[in-house]
Amino acid sequence: MPAGIKSFFLHGPAGRLEALLNEGATTATYAALVCHPHPLYGGTMHNKVVYHAMKTLHGFGFPVLRFNFRGAGLSEGEHDQGQGEVDDVRAALDWLDSEFHLPIIFCGFSFGAATGLPAACGDGRVAGLISLGTPVAVEGRAYTYGFLGDCAKPKLFVSGARDQFSPQESLTRLVEMAPEPKELVIVEGADHFFEGHLAEMQGAIRDWTARYFAAGQQVEAG
To answer: What is the pTM of this model?
Structure first.
């Protein structure tokens, strides 16, 4: 394991959850959590979008936690159709809070956003929310976001213009129902996985984080 990266298991409601922590600066003012896409379709904490989001947030000196949802990778338990996974997110937030006692920036990609946002929106320890490839039109799955209407934390939504699971019209309606502060960034030419457009996704995260949460000089994210 490279220096500055901690591999461990955190305690989850369905058993141990495999986790990675990219350690932050001693002067970090925030911690961050990044959640991965659907595990039944190959999603893990090593997903490219998750990795690049982590790199961007880590570039500010924040400690960044990733973990595998129940039943993914070496995590114990079984997939719970997005229900129990909300509690997995809460367990990760609990760990970050107990470890660093810092306000937390939540970031989720696809399934990680759909399961993480309901846990993070109402959690007073979470200072801001990043939703990547927010799934709003997935056949056979009903994702609802009514809770966003009461979520007054700073919110960033980033999706590709060609995202088949997040049509612009549907996503725009979703964002419109959320209170300020909020920002919607559509990456032209990008699909759900931001293939070939990860740099633009990182730029959106970097710009938004710098506006709301950066203290002092940013470290190069790479």
So the answer is: 0.94
Confidence of residue 2 (pLDDT cuts 50, 70, 90): low
Q: How many Å apart are CA 166 and CA 114, to the nearest integer?
A: 12
Q: Where are the domains of the chain?
A: 5-212
CA–CA separation, 5 vs 64, rounded Å?
Answer: 10
CATH number of 5-212: 3.40.50.1820
As a three-state string, the secondary structure of 3-25 is CCEEEEEEEECCEEEEEEEECCC
pLDDT above 60 for 88: yes
- Nearest 5°: phi and psi at 93? -65, -40
CA angle 57, 154, 169 (to 5 degrees): 100
Instruction: Look at strands 64-67 and 31-35 and give their pairing.
Output: parallel
